[in-house]
Amino acid sequence: MAYIMSDNFITQVEAEKLFEMEKISTDSKEYKFPFGAGRIEVKLSLLDKRELFHLDISRGRIDLKRIKYQNRARTTIILYRLDFSGAPHRNPDGEEVPCPHIHQYTEGYDDKWAYPITKDDFSDLDNYWSTLTRIHEEV
Q: Omega of the bond prior to 98 within 30 degrees of 0, cis?
Protein backbone atom coordinates (compact mmCIF):
# COMPACT_ATOMS: atom_id res chain seq x y z
CA MET A 1 0.00 0.00 0.00
CA ALA A 2 1.44 3.39 -0.96
CA TYR A 3 1.22 6.35 1.37
CA ILE A 4 1.08 9.96 0.34
CA MET A 5 3.17 12.37 2.34
CA SER A 6 1.06 14.64 4.46
CA ASP A 7 1.07 18.42 4.36
CA ASN A 8 2.82 18.29 7.74
CA PHE A 9 5.94 16.67 6.36
CA ILE A 10 9.09 16.92 8.45
CA THR A 11 12.27 14.91 8.10
CA GLN A 12 13.15 12.03 10.38
CA VAL A 13 16.02 14.05 11.84
CA GLU A 14 13.65 16.97 12.58
CA ALA A 15 11.15 14.63 14.26
CA GLU A 16 13.81 13.08 16.48
CA LYS A 17 15.19 16.50 17.44
CA LEU A 18 11.69 17.76 18.27
CA PHE A 19 11.04 14.76 20.49
CA GLU A 20 14.35 15.10 22.32
CA MET A 21 13.94 18.82 23.08
CA GLU A 22 13.21 19.68 26.70
CA LYS A 23 9.64 20.87 27.08
CA ILE A 24 7.77 22.73 29.81
CA SER A 25 4.10 23.33 30.47
CA THR A 26 2.79 26.61 29.07
CA ASP A 27 0.67 27.19 32.19
CA SER A 28 0.69 26.41 35.90
CA LYS A 29 -2.53 24.41 35.79
CA GLU A 30 -2.62 21.10 37.67
CA TYR A 31 -3.83 18.28 35.45
CA LYS A 32 -5.58 15.18 36.76
CA PHE A 33 -5.11 11.79 35.11
CA PRO A 34 -8.44 10.72 33.60
CA PHE A 35 -9.63 7.98 35.97
CA GLY A 36 -12.78 7.37 33.96
CA ALA A 37 -13.24 7.80 30.26
CA GLY A 38 -11.73 11.08 29.26
CA ARG A 39 -8.89 13.03 27.76
CA ILE A 40 -6.53 15.77 28.82
CA GLU A 41 -4.28 17.89 26.66
CA VAL A 42 -1.25 19.56 28.19
CA LYS A 43 0.23 22.36 26.12
CA LEU A 44 4.01 22.42 26.18
CA SER A 45 6.71 24.62 24.75
CA LEU A 46 10.44 24.97 24.64
CA LEU A 47 11.97 27.25 27.25
CA ASP A 48 12.47 29.91 24.57
CA LYS A 49 8.90 29.33 23.23
CA ARG A 50 10.18 28.70 19.66
CA GLU A 51 8.12 25.51 19.34
CA LEU A 52 4.79 24.43 20.79
CA PHE A 53 3.87 20.83 21.61
CA HIS A 54 0.92 18.89 22.98
CA LEU A 55 0.87 15.96 25.36
CA ASP A 56 -2.40 14.07 25.01
CA ILE A 57 -3.49 11.54 27.60
CA SER A 58 -6.70 9.65 26.97
CA ARG A 59 -8.53 6.73 28.51
CA GLY A 60 -11.14 4.42 27.03
CA ARG A 61 -14.77 4.48 28.05
CA ILE A 62 -15.32 0.73 28.45
CA ASP A 63 -11.77 -0.61 28.78
CA LEU A 64 -10.12 1.65 31.38
CA LYS A 65 -6.76 0.06 30.58
CA ARG A 66 -7.07 1.45 27.07
CA ILE A 67 -4.78 4.40 27.65
CA LYS A 68 -2.91 6.47 25.12
CA TYR A 69 -0.03 8.89 25.62
CA GLN A 70 0.72 11.00 22.59
CA ASN A 71 3.30 13.74 21.96
CA ARG A 72 2.46 16.10 19.09
CA ALA A 73 4.49 18.88 17.50
CA ARG A 74 3.18 21.71 15.34
CA THR A 75 -0.38 20.81 16.35
CA THR A 76 -0.86 17.73 14.16
CA ILE A 77 2.46 15.88 13.85
CA ILE A 78 2.43 12.86 16.13
CA LEU A 79 6.01 12.26 17.22
CA TYR A 80 5.28 9.27 19.47
CA ARG A 81 2.19 7.51 20.75
CA LEU A 82 2.11 4.76 23.34
CA ASP A 83 -0.99 2.54 23.24
CA PHE A 84 -1.32 0.47 26.42
CA SER A 85 -4.29 -1.66 25.37
CA GLY A 86 -6.58 -2.13 22.42
CA ALA A 87 -6.69 -3.77 19.05
CA PRO A 88 -3.51 -4.82 17.28
CA HIS A 89 -2.07 -2.32 14.80
CA ARG A 90 -1.29 -3.20 11.19
CA ASN A 91 1.89 -1.59 9.85
CA PRO A 92 2.23 -0.42 6.23
CA ASP A 93 4.14 -3.64 5.42
CA GLY A 94 1.25 -5.79 6.71
CA GLU A 95 2.89 -6.79 10.01
CA GLU A 96 0.40 -6.93 12.88
CA VAL A 97 1.67 -5.48 16.17
CA PRO A 98 -0.20 -6.35 19.39
CA CYS A 99 -0.73 -3.96 22.29
CA PRO A 100 1.04 -2.58 24.08
CA HIS A 101 2.91 -0.88 21.27
CA ILE A 102 4.50 2.45 20.47
CA HIS A 103 4.04 4.51 17.33
CA GLN A 104 6.93 6.59 16.13
CA TYR A 105 6.93 9.31 13.50
CA THR A 106 8.51 7.88 10.36
CA GLU A 107 9.34 10.19 7.50
CA GLY A 108 6.77 9.76 4.72
CA TYR A 109 4.44 7.67 6.91
CA ASP A 110 3.60 9.96 9.84
CA ASP A 111 2.70 7.69 12.80
CA LYS A 112 1.62 4.68 10.71
CA TRP A 113 4.43 2.43 12.06
CA ALA A 114 4.08 0.75 15.45
CA TYR A 115 6.61 -1.30 17.37
CA PRO A 116 5.90 -3.88 20.07
CA ILE A 117 7.00 -3.10 23.60
CA THR A 118 7.47 -5.38 26.55
CA LYS A 119 8.06 -5.10 30.28
CA ASP A 120 11.76 -5.08 29.38
CA ASP A 121 11.21 -1.80 27.48
CA PHE A 122 9.03 -0.22 30.17
CA SER A 123 9.54 -1.91 33.51
CA ASP A 124 6.12 -1.13 34.99
CA LEU A 125 3.43 -0.56 32.36
CA ASP A 126 0.77 -0.75 35.08
CA ASN A 127 2.25 2.36 36.70
CA TYR A 128 0.98 4.99 34.27
CA TRP A 129 2.84 7.92 35.88
CA SER A 130 6.17 6.07 35.88
CA THR A 131 5.67 5.06 32.26
CA LEU A 132 4.83 8.63 31.24
CA THR A 133 7.95 10.00 32.88
CA ARG A 134 10.15 7.29 31.35
CA ILE A 135 8.94 7.53 27.75
CA HIS A 136 11.60 10.07 26.86
CA GLU A 137 14.34 7.92 28.43
CA GLU A 138 13.28 4.66 26.80
CA VAL A 139 12.44 5.66 23.24
A: no
The pLDDT of residue 65 is: 72
Per-residue pLDDT of 20-49, as tens digits, reads 999 999 999 998 888 778 899 999 999 999
Q: Are 39 and 58 in contact (CB under 8 A)?
A: yes
To the question of pTM greater than 0.90 for the whole model, the response is no
**What's the pLDDT at 61?**
74
What gap in Å lies between CA 113 and CA 122, rounded to an integer? 19
End-to-end, the C-alpha distance of the chain in Å comes to 27
CA distance 95 to 129: 30
Question: Given strand 24-25, what is the order of strands in its sheet?
Answer: 24-25, 38-45, 52-59, 67-73, 77-83, 101-104, 114-116
Indicate the domain borders of the chain: 12-138
